[in-house]
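Support request from a user on the community tier.

User writes: "When I paste my structure tokens into the form, the page sometimes reloads and wipes my input. The last time it worked, I copied everything first. Here is what I submitted, just in case something in the input itself triggers the reload:"
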């Protein structure tokens, strides 16, 4: 039975697919009712490359979540990542006809719609348009222009762009798995909702989410998202290196990395050796933990340096843009031993590992609060935030009256309490998927 206030976040990752069902408890915290997890077979570096396998994996995860939570799931909010994601800064303005009236939501919607009409490269689509600061008649650094007088409304935007085909493939998988797709959210934005506190976002912080196939990055300063990036490698390339370097199979390499791996080779003595059973009656292999850590260390340094380069691209070295709260690591890859020390050593920035327990109800299952589930928790929070509070009949009425004013928006972070553009957009997107 699906009750009104239950929502579902679906994290389609390279190593696993997670469906998380939850609701808000009376204290406004997120209560996780059920988690379904399945091995992700048809996804490579965050991009779907085998539709059939992905559909099966989604169905497995959703069925497990339904069984645990004892609800039936029909709509999910989906996270999108992958190497095709890029972001850009853009500023735009509108001139208002009547400067004697105060600026209202329609003006902001008009400005955001205008940004959505930006000409992208062939095959690209705008996923998010996130307003950063507004200017009204040249007066800068305005966070919320609603209610002010002014003739010219101007804003800087953080625009996130992705490939149409990748987004459509995800839509197709979800539809074929018998679900409807609510909203598409960029995964680093979802993870940051789950892991970062408001103080950190104000002070300036970089979230590095090390997944299996990709490493996602989101930079916040003054409470506003400033930069996002997806680096096309994550924990899987470390496993791959261990596999090649030690001549063992993938499964063994993964276990070896999790159980004995460390990002800091100095920790292991030369004498520490682990023995791995040989294949089919062959001699067991002996692997020195120091060698293992050296292999892991080389690849981890590469990932961190790429992420640090993105932080520098944002302009961290400019004193005004300094990230005071440093770096927060999350995702499955953040559980590697001594990773925090290595990141601090390379970047010189304060670092902590982020657990998604800040917004979860106190009695949550410890498994749910693992960094592995940061994105899923963030997507669930996002789903609950946007859950319509009214009944189906109202929604249908609204949908029909909104048909004319649809833009092709997906998500624009708007102040709470007003109707987000995404709601107007959802029906158009469903139509678009039906035609596809």
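"...and here is what came back when it finally went through:"
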């Amino acid at each position: 039975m699906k009750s009104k206030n239950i929502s579902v976040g679906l994290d389609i990752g390279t190593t696993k697919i997670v469906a998380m069902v939850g609701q808000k408890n009376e204290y406004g915290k997120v209560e996780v009712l059920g988690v379904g997890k399945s091995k992700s077979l048809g996804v490579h570096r965050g991009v779907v490359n085998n539709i059939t396998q992905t559909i099966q994996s989604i169905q497995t995860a959703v069925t497990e979540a339904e069984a645990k939570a004892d609800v039936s799931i029909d709509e999910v909010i989906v996270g999108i990542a992958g190497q095709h994601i890029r972001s850009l800064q853009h500023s735009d303005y509108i001139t208002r006809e009547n400067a004697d009236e105060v600026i209202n939501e329609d003006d902001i919607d008009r400005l955001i719609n205008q940004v959505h009409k930006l000409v992208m490269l062939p095959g690209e689509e705008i996923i998010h348009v996130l307003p950063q600061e507004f200017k009204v008649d040249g007066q800068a650094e305005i966070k919320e222009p609603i209610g002010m007088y002014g003739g010219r409304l101007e804003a800087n935007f953080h625009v996130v762009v992705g490939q149409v085909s990748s987004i459509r493939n995800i839509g197709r998988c979800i539809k074929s798995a018998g679900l409807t797709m609510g909203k598409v959210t960029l995964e680093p934005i979802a993870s940051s909702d789950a892991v970062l506190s408001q103080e950190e976002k104000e002070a300036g912080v970089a979230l590095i989410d090390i997944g299996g196939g990709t490493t996602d990055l989101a930079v916040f300063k003054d409470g506003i998202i400033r930069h996002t990036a997806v680096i096309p490698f994550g924990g899987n390339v470390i496993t791959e290196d261990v596999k090649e370097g030690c001549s063992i199979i993938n499964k063994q390499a993964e276990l070896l990395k999790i159980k004995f791996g460390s990002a800091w080779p100095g920790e292991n003595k030369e004498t520490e050796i682990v023995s791995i059973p040989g294949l089919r009656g062959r001699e067991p292999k002996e692997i020195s933990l120091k060698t293992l850590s050296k292999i892991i260390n080389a690849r981890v340094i590469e990932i961190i340096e790429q992420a640090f380069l993105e932080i520098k691209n944002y302009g961290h070295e400019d004193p005004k843009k300094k990230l005071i709260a440093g770096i927060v690591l999350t995702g499955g890859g953040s559980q590697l031993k001594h990773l925090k020390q290595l990141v601090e050593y390379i970047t010189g920035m304060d670092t902590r590992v982020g657990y998604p327990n800040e917004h979860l109800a106190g009695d949550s299952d410890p498994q749910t609060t693992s960094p592995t589930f940061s994105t899923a928790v963030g997507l669930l929070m996002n789903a609950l935030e946007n859950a319509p509070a009214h009944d189906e009949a109202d929604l249908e009425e609204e949908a029909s009256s909104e048909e004319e004013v649809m833009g092709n928006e997906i998500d624009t972070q708007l102040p709470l309490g007003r109707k987000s553009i995404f709601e107007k957009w959802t029906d158009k997107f469903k139509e678009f998927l039906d035609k596809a």
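Agent notes: The reload is a front-end session timeout and is unrelated to the input. The mean pLDDT is 86. DSSP finds twelve helices and 18 strands in the chain. Escalated to web team.
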